[in-house]
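INFO batch 0412 | record 1 of 1 | parsing
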Amino acid sequence: MDHLPKGEWAKNLSSEGRRSLVMIEDNQMIGTSSYCSSRLSRLHEYGEIISIYMLPDYMGKGYGKQLLHETIMCLKEEGYHDLYLWVLKENHHARKFYKNAGFIQSDDVLFNSFGKMSNRFKFT
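INFO prediction complete | emitting tokens
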């Protein structure tokens, strides 16, 4: 989240239709995820994982897998069988994480409001 201007990310938590999970350990927030129905009309039948963030000290310890699993379960409980998310092209750690979790990179490309390119990964 270092590329986001201070305060930009938090205000999106209350966006209409967006749901968020928070992972807490020892009374400290260590991770969060946000998800919703697809924000793209052409993928209206999909659930979308908007973000998953973990504090650096908790990465590589299985917490992210737990948070991703719970996020997927929430979307499936809402009736979504097909899911997708966007991963920044230069975020090699996240790309590996999602591929290991069963997501497959598609040919779709998106440029976000910060001019960064992302690829869509899908999970079915």
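INFO post-check: The two ends are 27 Å apart (CA to CA).
INFO record closed
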